[in-house]
Amino acid sequence: MIEFIGTDLDGTLLNSYSKISSKNIQAIRNAVNSGMEFAICSGRTLHSVNKYFENDLKVPGYRVVLNGAVVVDPQGKRIIDQPLDHGIVEEILKRSEFSKFKVVLDGLNDVHVYDPNHSWTTYFEGMSRHHIKARSIDDLRKLNDKADFNVYKVCFSCAPARLKELQKKLESFTSLPVTISRSGSYYFEINGQDVTKLSALQYISGYSSIPMAHFMCFGDYGNDLEMIKEAGYGVAMDNAIESVKAVAWKITGTNNQDGVATMINQVLDSSKEEK
């Protein structure tokens, strides 16, 4: 019995053009209209996820953002708020100051990007008023020093040739009380200790009184793996990495083949037959 649907955005609900297809939109609306709860579970900021609810989906739902560091319920109440400790952010920045990797600090709605190679885009969108350039690591440190600015996530990315170097640097952070996840081939994200999409969904399970066994979750990459593994019905996209596919209940079509809609429609059709 499926009562709750949670889906990742990039590589999952979104196609390669960062759009939600009309088929995916309709399937989600049908699921919500049938009485299911819905959530977007993303590494993106709240502002970025809200856009998809307001402009495309137009349904109520949970916003599980910044890899679960913040959760907003369907009524707009923030029920989880777990920023990184300022001292830990300072330590991460200090240790990476001379490494020349792209470093991104994610606030609730804004991202601050330092890139020694002067490409200030992030994995999910280009420049906008919510994407703010930092001239140096020191700029990021000054931002972190502000008492009224919370950092929820520190992100690192690199050119393919420097992947091993970046992974070695990230290994040096494992002694800190943080969670490190991979959201792309060359993109890594650092959240607070035990902050994951899964931990957020487990909290929602208690908050909504819907058991995790009744959750169906969709994903494609490393920061989705635990969510896919522990949900009652974990669905991997056909474009997912092999480790995610290995723990999934089922594999659906790719993000460019309306894979989310395909699985939701199967579930809705089978529940109609049962009735």
Lateral strand order in the biggest sheet: 5-4-3-2-1-12-13-14
The CA-CA distance between the termini, in Å, is 12 Å
Mean pLDDT: 94
Strand tally is: 14
**Helicity level, as a percent range?**
25-40%
Instruction: Tell me the number of helical segments per DSSP (H or I, 4 or more residues long).
Output: 10
Q: H/E element string? A: EHHEHEEEHEEEHEHEEHEHEHEH
Q: Return residue spans where pLDDT drops below 50 for at least 5 consecutive residues.
A: none
Based on secondary structure, the structural category is alpha/beta
Strand content: 15-25%
**What Rg, in angstroms, do the CA atoms define?**
18 Å
Shape: globular
- Which sheet architecture does the biggest sheet show? 8 strands, mixed
Q: Gist?
A:
The protein is 36% helix and 23% strand.
Report on the architecture of this protein.
This protein has 275 residues and is α/β, with parallel strands linked by helices. The chain is 36% helix and 23% strand. The protein contains 10 helices and 14 strands. It has an 8-stranded mixed beta sheet, sandwiched between helices. A 6-stranded mixed beta sheet has the order 8-7-6-9-11-10. A hairpin with a 2-residue loop joins β10 and β11. The longest helix has 16 residues. The radius of gyration is 18 Å and the shape is globular. The two termini are 12 Å apart. The relative contact order is 0.17. The model has no long low-confidence stretch (mean pLDDT 94).
